[in-house]
């Protein structure tokens, strides 16, 4: 294992540094101290060819100007909060409406847009990038001074483990996730429509026209949302299901994980032979198939933005949970510790 670093730019007078971790089997991950952003993830295909399997940019300016949360840690609350408001212990809180009438991924300057402190650690068969950030009381409208810790652990078994810890000095809400866009074809040479996806989930959350959970759980049975035995991602864009159409002819939905088996999620690319298996202690995963990915910018230096270029697997608690008492709670009280764990295992078939 080795870790190298280099300055890639400045923001607000502070340096932004890229850290690259390389394992003995060729797997390489590069990320920034800005937003804990994973900018590049290189793994072998079935022939041993090393290629990048995530979407990102070559410079910090593009992340600031164009990024749809590529590779970042998002929060304090991942996903949307309806009308940017919630009530906690009888007090009303109002946040930025940065996604139509709703609050999205922590606001105008969420955790994806701050520079984290970073320490590195190398052991025999693994390396760690340890990010910490002190989020002050009132930041983006959230209560409490919150101490946050994100750890990326890269192993020689071609695994990435992401762990989040959080504590607060006042009751608040917290629900973090990583927003990496995966494309297992390698170097985004094709879309993810022919990727096969398997999710251990019997139900998904119904969304309204603003992509907010209505509170209803819908059965996956007999729909393009049934990934229990694996299906092509292309089935979503081709589906006439109102929920697929509403999301822009694809998926942008929270799936409730059965939590009966691990890995809970598996993605396969027949073209490259690459597979991705996901284990998590979280109750849900938001599947987003980049239905809205478009813009006049280049990804990874030479790839034009287009729909269905990648998929996100955002392991988390249910979006807008603070406004749905029957959803798993995202409330964090003083003296409690928030903890989230997700492991990504990269293999070939």
TrEMBL record:
EC number of the protein: 5.1.3.3
GO biological process: galactose catabolic process via UDP-galactose, Leloir pathway; glucose metabolic process
Entry-linked PROSITE patterns: ALDOSE_1_EPIMERASE
Top-rank EC class of the record's enzyme: isomerase
UniProt entry keywords in alphabetical sequence: Carbohydrate metabolism, Isomerase
Active site: 179, 314
GO cellular component terms listed in the entry, alphabetical order: cytoplasm
Annotated transmembrane regions: none
Residues reported in the UniProt entry to bind beta-D-galactose: 179-181, 252
Catalysed transformations (reactions): alpha-D-glucose = beta-D-glucose
Pathway: Carbohydrate metabolism; hexose metabolism
InterPro entries: Ald1_epimerase_CS, Aldose_1-epimerase, Aldose_1/G6P_1-epimerase, Gal_mutarotase_sf_dom, Galactose_mutarotase-like, GH-type_carb-bd
Molecular function GO terms recorded: aldose 1-epimerase activity; carbohydrate binding
PANTHER family named in the record: ALDOSE-1-EPIMERASE, GALACTOSE MUTAROTASE
Family affiliation: Belongs to the aldose epimerase family.
Descriptive protein name: Aldose 1-epimerase
